[in-house]
Amino acid sequence: MPKFDIPAEIVEQTQLAHGIFLLTVEAPAIQNSANPGQFCMLEVKYNNSRDPLLRRPLSIYKTQANGHISFLYKKVGKGTRLLSKRRPGEIVRVLGPLGQGFRLIHDRPCILVGGGLGIAPLLLPAERIKQSGKLVILIGAGNASEIPTIEDFSGLTRYFHVATEDGSLGQRGMVTDLLAQTLQEITGMAQIYTCGPWPMMKAVYHIARKKNIPCQVSLEATMACGIGLCLGCAVPKSDSREFLHVCKEGPVFDADQVNWEYTQ
Amino acid sequence: MPKFDIPAEIVEQTQLAHGIFLLTVEAPAIQNSANPGQFCMLEVKYNNSRDPLLRRPLSIYKTQANGHISFLYKKVGKGTRLLSKRRPGEIVRVLGPLGQGFRLIHDRPCILVGGGLGIAPLLLPAERIKQSGKLVILIGAGNASEIPTIEDFSGLTRYFHVATEDGSLGQRGMVTDLLAQTLQEITGMAQIYTCGPWPMMKAVYHIARKKNIPCQVSLEATMACGIGLCLGCAVPKSDSREFLHVCKEGPVFDADQVNWEYTQ
Amino acid sequence: MIHQNDQITKSPDLSIKIGSLVLKNPVLLASGTCGYGTELDGLLDLDQVGGIIVKGISIRPRPGTPPPRLVETPCGLLNSIGLENVGIESFLRDKLPWLRNVKTSLIVNILGNSVEEYSEIAKKLDGAEGVKAIEVNISCPNVKAGGIAFGTDPEAAANVTRAVKKATDLPVIIKLTPNVTDITKVARKVASAGADAVSLINTLLGMAIDIKSRRPALANVFGGLSGPAIKPIALRMVWQVVRAVDIPVIGIGGISTSDDALEFLMAGAKAVEIGTATLIRPSTAEDVPADIRDYMEANSIQNLEDLRLPE
Amino acid sequence: MIHQNDQITKSPDLSIKIGSLVLKNPVLLASGTCGYGTELDGLLDLDQVGGIIVKGISIRPRPGTPPPRLVETPCGLLNSIGLENVGIESFLRDKLPWLRNVKTSLIVNILGNSVEEYSEIAKKLDGAEGVKAIEVNISCPNVKAGGIAFGTDPEAAANVTRAVKKATDLPVIIKLTPNVTDITKVARKVASAGADAVSLINTLLGMAIDIKSRRPALANVFGGLSGPAIKPIALRMVWQVVRAVDIPVIGIGGISTSDDALEFLMAGAKAVEIGTATLIRPSTAEDVPADIRDYMEANSIQNLEDLRLPE
Ligand SMILES: Cc1cc2nc3c(=O)[nH]c(=O)nc-3n(C[C@H](O)[C@H](O)[C@H](O)COP(=O)(O)OP(=O)(O)OC[C@H]3O[C@@H](n4cnc5c(N)ncnc54)[C@H](O)[C@@H]3O)c2cc1C
Ligand SMILES: Cc1cc2nc3c(=O)[nH]c(=O)nc-3n(C[C@H](O)[C@H](O)[C@H](O)COP(=O)(O)OP(=O)(O)OC[C@H]3O[C@@H](n4cnc5c(N)ncnc54)[C@H](O)[C@@H]3O)c2cc1C
Ligand SMILES: Cc1cc2nc3c(=O)[nH]c(=O)nc-3n(C[C@H](O)[C@H](O)[C@H](O)COP(=O)(O)O)c2cc1C
Ligand SMILES: Cc1cc2nc3c(=O)[nH]c(=O)nc-3n(C[C@H](O)[C@H](O)[C@H](O)COP(=O)(O)O)c2cc1C
Ligand code: FES
Ligand code: FES
């Protein structure tokens, strides 16, 4: 699979909600070969400074035929703070598309389960699945302001549900409540795709396993290279003392492969 | 002498010529207590990056009664490049006013000799001397574009002369030629103030010494703190194995104090 | 007065004891980066600082090394000041009186090229009013041993420790060099030789080349590396030494924020020193203890010891 | 053909020889930061690189340490990968064939927990087509000596060197650890034990604490520090070792640009390795030799040796 390391011009940088940004860059080569669930490594250092040293991984949120790709990200630390200061016209180096995305299954209902900004890698698969079959989208968050882009999702399917912990949007509660409800209504085979905080994905996986529904998860890990050079992005496997490498074999894995009990 | 470490708002950042910038910030406390020949330490790192680590020393070029101070600087490396990217409205941390400036002598003709951007610390003394006595200003540079602000100086005195090595402005030649010519015309006592590249200042000092004219020089040295904490900004003394400290005892020294023969 | 609520949150206690030395908070100014205190006047309220450790003092004044003495490196600073200082006589006469008026603990950093020199300076400081402790820089060359630094030889380090302890009743902090294979060996030796505490790390030996002038960037070729770049190495060594000795450990190396300081306190350091950061932002040593206090309040931590990570 | 001008500027010669190993240019990919080469396909033209040193190989596959394995530090990277690798058998079977097709010199980095393990891997590589040299990572724990790294004990380092030299006719590069008091001691020992070259530095031992989770940031507590932060230390050690041994020295540590590489070449290194920089910008090892060539042309320097500073 081709990868590109491109000095990409910023075409849009919008703060959507407190600390949540949408960044759009012009990177036709990456846009052209991106698959749903893939990510990029973005240079966040400013000019010729060497701190922060590493690039930051961000999922490809949206692509447009004109060569634009967008990232939906949250300002959590030094790197994303610096990134959020960059303005249209400026250049950021973007390496991508990276990793193994979602393996889309078309012969059964697909359920996308996103938690908070875990929705970022789910828009592209949602758009693809929409064209081919039955799509359920379930989104959860602490409150409505954490998911400022749900309108990108809500139009894709009739089966769209939101849960917030404070009830500020949709049902009050967890996205896993929505999943349990949904699964009660689905009789035949289904397929789950999920991304969000580790405890949420773990809970989704447990629900899925009980019902014997295959589940693909998009994982996060600290990364240095994003392309399999450093072996830094390890996550324990379920069936051995070995490790999965999020940037190369992932970020999307069959949830069965992952040792969900591991905490540092 | 009071010093202040101020988050100062940028009010102007203008590129005057290729690689030469005028930066104006709002720093009333510093403006209020600045003496001619003093300098500031400016934070050049961007946001919460720690590279570049150190602040950069820049002479106070201009002050305005409204609390503005201006720096005239050249983009030579990493730090000044980053500084040149900063825009009005942004904040830079400025520590100043620092060091011992020129000791202005009012009872004799004063000759200011500036080489290239070495003119930066000379505008304030020129303005002060102008009010009290006879002022000669001699400026040298490789070519005209290296000294884009000479109009700030040219109106201060009738005795204003420029030399450029390529003849693009004023007399073709060195500023030391101008100095030699000027000294032939001056009969009584005089006082020289100079700033520029080391070889130029050394030549100025040698001319001055031959004529027994006191000479104050503004020196540069790599600095970490700018306030006498680290002892890093050493320059060898003429009369002992000891060192002058540019940030504390200088940057302005009587040229006699300096060991002009020292090169690393 | 009646306490209506037993759960009244007490303000965190930031004071610490290192032997007989009591510090109002655990944040000290590191030697060589705070001059003799006066230079910071107006930019840092010394009264808010846990202590000040003045520039290393030798028996006679030292002019230091020729310039260039400084090079900036990625997130670091290389220096070869050559231990320039006014000497013990001038220190006692010209610098100490001003420092006596500051309401913080004064610690004097000392250096020598022989055990005798260390001992002699310590004796002169013993009676000096206002001096609360001695920090011994053992990164200096041992002239009698061919110039190898005292601090890289556990035996030599122990000898210096014993000599200084004998020469003074003041608390003695031995400042360790990181340029060794196993810093716990030196730490153990100086601890059993009677050190009241150890502080670490001093700078790491480094160099830079100026590719334009095609010369080493420092006139002295080698210099000491400090600043954020060295923090991971410093923290590792502090972690190791805390687990190797029973005396208090003072952490030093690349600390610029309370987050950095908290890492060292969590590793088990009793106190920390701020070096290069003061050069860049003079108020750092005032901001860090204030921010540590905020952190402790926010996390309901009452005592500094409770910051230390469980084993 | 008649030369009209004797002064025709020849293109600078970037090729170098390290024992019998000839490299087209002095810029190598450092072990552990370039995978097994394939991962860089399309992002770096391996044919333009002086050589590739693949991830350290052990006798059996190693799963490595649990996550977190990485922490970013100021201008640095801490890693504890735990020497995860596919093992020598899988390397020869699955990775080597692809690497044979690359037009650059392949160097295999090896590691072991005993002298015998090193020797065994070296034997297996001796006949392997396409392998041009062996780089020996001696920063590994010597299990028989209680886990102290081979590289911190000059005698143990020499033993490994002798064993590997005996096991293979390939040029042997010993990769030194910086976590020692005097790196020249180890360098001298391995040189007299027959090493064809030394490369340095491996990572510096460091750590970080996550103050939010109140735990060491690496699951393994300690990790190796690399990146621009360590360059001044690496350069100092290279400078020292160049002046201590007669065999070629390969410089490693924080090199991200041709300016960085030139510092090492000016210090006397014959070649350099690019580590962490490749993780951040995969094309670095292609850009650096091109920029070195430009520098040499601009400064009329014909041979790499002429870059070395005069003593
Ligand atoms: C494959 C992948 C896709 C991602 N997609 C998105 C996305 O679309 N939108 C979004 O907001 N975030 C996404 N993340 C998380 C994002 O990478 C981190 O929030 C970001 O790196 C934080 O950097 P920082 O400098 O602001 O934070 P700091 O905490 O200052 O970062 C310090 C170091 O930790 C790493 N780090 C911190 N948080 C994470 C994390 N959650 N995952 C991995 N590394 C982390 C950083 O990369 C950096 O190396 C993704 C992560 C991965 C691995
Ligand atoms: C008292 C004083 C006043 C000065 N006033 C002015 C001024 O008004 N206008 C102006 O253009 N320049 C002035 N300079 C020089 C200016 O400080 C340097 O050009 C600037 O620091 C270069 O930083 P850099 O990061 O762009 O260059 P780099 O070469 O990347 O800097 C690397 C390091 O070297 C130091 N350094 C580089 N050049 C010099 C130099 N000439 N003097 C001291 N340190 C240097 C930097 O501060 C930094 O620590 C002054 C210097 C001093 C000491
Ligand atoms: C310019 C400078 C001068 C120093 N002088 C001394 C000194 O005289 N004695 C000493 O023990 N340490 C000296 N040090 C070392 C510091 O006290 C401190 O141990 C080291 O810089 C690491 O801390 P930092 O990273 O916070 O700077 C000096 C450091 C610097 C940067
Ligand atoms: C993620 C990572 C993995 C590494 N793995 C190895 C290894 O397997 N064998 C080895 O000899 N060195 C290994 N190293 C050390 C590098 O080869 C190099 O010596 C070190 O990182 C310093 O160079 P740098 O600053 O350019 O990265 C590794 C370094 C990193 C960052
Ligand atoms: S981040 Fe380097 S291998 Fe995955
Ligand atoms: S720059 Fe620190 S003493 Fe002058």
Task: Give, in order, the helices and strands of chain C.
Answer: EEEEEEHEHEEEHEHEEEEEHEHEHH
Q: What is the fourth-level CATH superfamily of chain C?
A: Aldolase class I
Report how far apart the termini of chain C are.
41 Å
Query: Could you say how many structural domains of chain A there are in total?
Result: 2
The portion of residues assigned to helices of chain A is: 10-25%
Largest interface, per-chain counts? C-D, 41 and 41 residues
CATH topology of the largest domain in chain A: Rossmann fold
In CATH terms, what is the fold-level topology of chain C? Answer: TIM Barrel
Using DSSP, what is the number of strands of chain C? 18
* Helix share bin of chain C: 25-40%
| N-end to C-end Cα span of chain A | 33 Å
Largest sheet of chain C, in brief, is: 8 strands, parallel, barrel
Any idea what the shape of chain A is? globular
| Annotation, overall tally of beta strands of chain A | 16
* SSE-based structural type of chain A: alpha/beta
- Strand fraction band of chain C? 15-25%
CATH architecture classification name of the largest domain in chain A: 3-Layer(aba) Sandwich
Q: Name the poorly predicted regions of chain C.
A: 1-6
